[in-house]
Amino acid sequence: MSISVQLSAASLQYAGAAQATFAGLNLNLPAAKWTCLLGPSGCGKTSLLRLLAGLIDSSHQLSGQISCSDGLSIDNRISYMAQQDLLLPWLNVLDNVCLKAKLLTGKVSAGEQHKARQLLAQLNLSGIEKSLPDQLSGGMRQRVALARTLMQDTPIVLMDEPFSALDAVNRYKLQDLAAKVLQGRTVLLITHDPQEALRLSDQLYLFSADQQLLPLPLPDSLPPRAVDAQLGQYQQSLLQKMQVLHG
Amino acid sequence: MAKITLNTATLGNSLSNLWRLTITALVILLLWQAIVVCFEMPPFILPPPLLVLEKLIGSYQLLLSHSLITMSEIVLGLLLGLLMGLLFALQMLLFKPLRRWLLPVLIASQAIPVFALAPILMLWFGYGMTSKVIMAALIIFFPVTTTCFDGLRYTPIGYLDLAHTMGANKWRQLWHIRLPAALPTLASGIRVAAVVAPIGAVVGEWVGSSGGLGYLMLQANARMQIADMFAALFILALFSIALYYFTDLLLKTLIPWHREQAGH
Q1: How many domains does chain B have?
Q2: Which CATH number fits the domain that encloses residue B168?
Q3: Which one of A6, A56, B194, B203 is at 20 to 30 Å from A71 when CA atoms are compared?
Q4: B111 and B215: one domain?
Q5: Residue A39, Cα to own-chain centre: how many angstroms?
Q6: Which of residues 151-210 of A touch B (CB under 8 A)?
Q7: Cβ of B161 under 8 Å from any chain A Cβ?
């Protein structure tokens, strides 16, 4: 079942920091839709994602409320994809994909292995199950990370610039693939790439310099959008807006 | 195909290493012989290599029995030191309040020279093998603990974030993430330990013992049987080098991903 997530009055100030990273922030992640947060490095968008993921240490000043549409807690119902693929170099591809089972129960069942193989096949990664991550290319590694995310099978997926380390062609392919395989899940994508945000968003926000979320218009077509003239126009106007907002 | 190329390259490396080692050994032996001849060294100051070889062959039974004692002390000391270091590092990682108490103990263990402790260890643990094993363990305790602790402390934060979002508890994170991630750093400490442990064992034997290569060297020295002393030294050096290479090979086999990351 798809669920929406509401973040209300979220504030964060890191210990020792002179001012808050953001304060009184509200964000709604609609069920089964992609929400993208766009903003330059250091604007606080990653902190917002970390807050949702429960990764902010209690030593920092943190307030706000996270509620899910089904009334249950968000804990253990998210999967996380970072800029780095975070594949453990000592585990082979199959074990990396099954990492959650390994971490929670200490072992991986035959059923889980079978499911992982199917997911790898779905992502065109058959035959590399026994390879170590260092033997793979950047694009393949990120696809394995995507398989690991799918294997977690959570309704909410948090992505922090997961395609930014890839070359243009691989980034484009992986954006399409992610949009296809993550259908039905509630996704929050953090990015600093306007084109990526415009291609994948169902709803798009720009993190402004005063730490507010500005909603932005999107092309009429459905994601993943092709890079066409219309998208180019949106990208142009978006870049101009970002220039004004962030200097 | 890639695998075959890699294996061939590894074999090639091993062979060239062996060649280098043989050539280095030959050069040292030639220099040694040259010094004996040029400076007309008497055998009780510097015996020629051939005399040492004669002793090695002639007294091999005696040398073997003493070598076994020293080697056992070194290996047991290495294992004990590794275990102690690992446990100490784990305690400091897991029980943060304890860290402030344990850190001075760790530093003191390095600040007090183990050589100075040797007579006390003899007094407490006797002239047998135990005191030497403890000496070897103590001398490697610091490098093992610090490298292990550093390795455990500096786990890439992304791995821990991922494990956290997957709901892994502290112990599973330790076992599946922190410990394997710390292995390459710990391996550096173990390599140092493999080289240093023989020093601990031999110093222990010098201070007081009834067997071992250190004991044999002291006895030979007192009787001016310098060739015997060199024979014992040769075996000790050979064992230390073999121990280092064996440890290195073992670690490379156990931590293959580190080798690949390093691009060897």
Answers
A1: 2
A2: 1.10.3720.10
A3: A56
A4: yes
A5: 14
A6: 152, 158
A7: yes
What is this model's ipTM? 0.90
Nearest by Cα to A35 from A174, A226, A223? A223
pLDDT above 80: residue A209: no
- Nearest residue, CB atoms, A86 vs list B159, B172, B176: B159
- pTM for this prediction: 0.81
Q: Is B26 in the same domain as B53?
A: no
Q: Are residues B60 and B132 in the same domain?
A: yes
pLDDT digits (tens, 9 = 90+) for A15-37: 988 888 888 899 999 999 999 99
| Backbone torsions φ then ψ of B156, nearest 5 degrees | -50, 125
Cβ pair B165:A80 closer than 8 A? yes
DSSP secondary structure letters along A138-202: HHHHHHHHHHHHHHH--SEEEEESTTTTS-HHHHHHHHHHHHHHTTTSEEEEEES-HHHHHHH-S
For residues B55 and B30, state if they share a domain: no
User: CB contact, 8 Å: B170 with chain A?
Assistant: no
Q: Are strands A156-160 and A78-81 parallel, antiparallel or unpaired?
A: parallel
Selection from B191, B192, B193, B181 nearest residue B258 by Cα? B181
pLDDT tens by residue, B104-132: 888 887 788 888 888 898 899 988 899 99
Could you tell me which residues come within 8 angstroms of residue A53 by beta carbon, excluding any fewer than 6 positions away?
Answer: A78, A80, A158, B161, B164, B165
**Which candidate, A93, A140, A132, places its Cα nearest to that of B256?**
A132
CA gap A113, A147 in Å, rounded: 12
Measured between beta carbons, the chain A residues lying within 8 angstroms of B183 are 90
Structural fold of domain A5-246: Rossmann fold (3.40.50)
Residue B69 CA to residue B128 CA, distance in Å, equals 10
Q: Which domain holds residue B5?
A: 1-40
